[in-house]
């Protein structure tokens, strides 16, 4: 039987490596030559949609072509900065996706832009279509919390061919559409809500569950902005869903 391999620290104290030691040296050399994954590239810019200037942030993988694109919308008290600070943009890009977060009209760095509809009323489905075109997005995943439902739901019903998948997070306006309309949509959907969301959690679920191709991510102990309350669970659930689309 051969002798046990020495500890790594002993290798460098010998003047001449033994045969068994050489395997360790080769392994260490290979590790040293392995390039580390480049950090995601984050940029900020603006687009013009229907004559209005909208701000956005984009994160892309450092060394590879994106597997697919993800468009992140936001609620009335938030903006694209929410996804930046929560590390959602970085995590998506690190997992190989192109992540784009826009500031909706009248909010964040798009506060001077006029919204295409009053708050709480469905916006024209063509609005997000124009956003897609301005950002040069192909079929993409749309993440839509709260207020942004007024934009994402009309888009879902009018332009589902542009949606790779839909991730509604207790959005508004779900009651504006019929069960038959929901049943006609085949887009893969991850319905997300917190069990402490007494405002929109169950209400939105009861309407969205009429989408035939859906999964539900219920976040225990989380409120309306459940992704803020349970960021690790949010990111894990989101990434698992995105991987299922590949």
How would you describe this structure to a colleague?
- This protein is an alpha/beta fold and 246 residues long.
- The protein has 2 domains: 8-37; 41-243, 3-Layer(aba) Sandwich (Rossmann fold), CATH 3.40.50.1820.
- It contains 10 helices and 8 strands.
- The protein has helices at residues 8-11, 19-33, 80-85, 88-94, 126-135, 149-158, 179-183, 201-208, 226-229, 231-243, and strands at 41-49, 52-60, 69-72, 98-102, 140-145, 163-169, 189-194, 214-219.
- The protein has an 8-stranded mixed β-sheet, sandwiched between helices.
- Helix 8 (201-208) links the parallel strand 7 (189-194) and strand 8.
- The longest helix has 15 residues, at 19-33.
- The radius of gyration is 23 Å and the shape is globular.
- Mean pLDDT is 89; it is low at 1-21 and 23-36.
- Residues 70-116 form the AB hydrolase-1 domain.
- It catalyses: L-lysyl-[protein] + acetyl-CoA = N(6)-acetyl-L-lysyl-[protein] + CoA + H(+).
- One of its GO terms (molecular function) is acyltransferase activity.
Task: Reconstruct the topology from this structure.
Blueprint: H1 8-11, H2 19-33, E1 41-49, E2 52-60, E3 69-72, H3 80-85, H4 88-94, E4 98-102, H5 126-135, E5 140-145, H6 149-158, E6 163-169, H7 179-183, E7 189-194, H8 201-208, E8 214-219, H9 226-229, H10 231-243
Parallel strand pairs: 3-4, 3-5, 5-6, 6-7, 7-8
Antiparallel strand pairs: 1-2, 2-4
Helix pairs in contact: 5-6
């Amino acid at each position: 039987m051969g002798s046990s391999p020495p500890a790594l620290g002993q290798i460098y104290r010998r003047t001449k490596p033994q045969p068994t030691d050489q395997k360790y040296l080769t392994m260490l050399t290979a590790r040293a030559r392995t390039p580390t994954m480049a950090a995601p590239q984050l940029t900020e810019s603006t687009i013009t949609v229907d004559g209005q200037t909208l701000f956005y942030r984009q994160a892309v993988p450092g060394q590879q072509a994106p597997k697919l694109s993800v468009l992140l919308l936001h609620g009335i008290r938030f903006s694209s900065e929410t996804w930046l600070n929560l590390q959602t943009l970085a995590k998506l890009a690190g997992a190989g996706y192109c992540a784009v977060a826009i500031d909706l009209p009248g909010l964040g760095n798009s506060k001077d832009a006029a919204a295409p509809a009053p708050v709480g009323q469905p916006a024209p489905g063509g609005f997000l279509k124009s956003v897609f075109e301005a950002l040069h997005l192909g079929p993409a995943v749309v993440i839509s919390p709260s207020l942004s439902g007024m934009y994402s739901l009309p888009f879902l019903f009018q332009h589902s061919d542009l949606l790779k998948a839909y991730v509604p997070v207790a959005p508004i306006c779900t009651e504006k559409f019929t069960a038959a309309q929901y049943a006609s949509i085949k887009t893969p959907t991850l319905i997300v809500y917190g069990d402490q969301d007494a405002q929109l959690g169950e209400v939105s679920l009861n309407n969205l569950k009429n989408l035939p191709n859906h999964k539900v991510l219920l976040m225990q102990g989380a409120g309306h902005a459940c992704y803020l309350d349970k960021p690790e669970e949010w990111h894990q659930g989101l990434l698992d869903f995105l991987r299922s689309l590949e």
